[in-house]
Design brief:
It is built from eight helices and 14 strands. It is α/β, with parallel strands linked by helices.
């Protein structure tokens, strides 16, 4: 799961990223309005943490840009302004939640989980597809009620595929999802193939049907 932290306080942004990394999220940063615009125009995120008080612009305008582009990224406003008007405006424009500074990182993580669960998994704590079951809270995967062991990358890939069911996803998109900003620095995307190969093998050996299909010359698709 990929998170964009739009926050101009470096220490706060890093502390959020450190905490969320332990929760298996991949975090990227934008400290200015223009950096944030560049990020949202070229990338997609599972959740965006948006500070509305930026040095070179208003975060509310970023919300409006997301709405204009019809993007489905989850958005949580994090702001030092505890203004009812700001909360109402942000939620009306398209934010999914609003959290006032200071806040506990555990509460932020819970809110992120809630937004992603609601937007991608029908507000459920479990995802079921025939013999395959995923417990989003426990971060476990089972096939025919038998647990299988996945790495963080494999678990993240599985959720990404299921959250984008029946859509063809390119290798470059998967590389960005797995590596974030570092994807552009890589010579090739062989590591994507390696992770997918391992994920397929573990699922198949556990008795899972082959839902993950290779679309030759294009990418991959989870069917269901």
């Amino acid at each position: 799961m990929k998170i964009l932290i739009i926050e101009d306080e470096p220490q706060l942004a890093q502390s959020i990223a450190d905490y969320l990394s332990e929760e298996s999220y991949l975090c990227e940063f934008a400290s200015t309005y223009n950096q944030a615009l560049d990020k949202i125009e070229t990338h997609t995120y599972d959740c965006i943490l948006l500070d509305i008080m930026l040095p070179d612009g208003n975060g509310m305008s970023i919300l409006e840009k997301l709405k204009d582009q019809d993007k489905q990224d989850g958005v949580i406003i994090i702001s030092a302004k505890n203004s009812l008007d700001d909360k109402i405006k942000g939620l009306q424009i398209g934010a999914d939640d609003y959290l006032t500074k200071p806040f506990h990182l555990s509460e932020l993580a819970a809110r992120i989980y809630s937004v992603i669960r609601r937007k991608q998994f029908g507000n459920s704590n479990t995802v079921q597809q025939n013999e395959l079951q995923i417990d989003l809270l426990a971060k476990t995967v089972s096939v025919n009620n038998r647990l299988i062991s996945l790495t963080k990358k494999e678990f993240g890939l599985l959720l990404y595929f299921i959250g984008n069911k029946n859509k063809v996803i390119s290798k470059s998109t998967l590389a960005e999802h797995l590596s974030g900003d570092f994807a552009d620095m890589l010579d090739n995307h062989d590591f994507v193939y390696a992770h997918i190969k391992n994920l397929k093998k573990k699922l198949n050996e556990a008795g899972c049907d082959t839902y993950l299909k290779t679309v030759y010359g294009t990418g991959y698709k989870w069917e269901g």
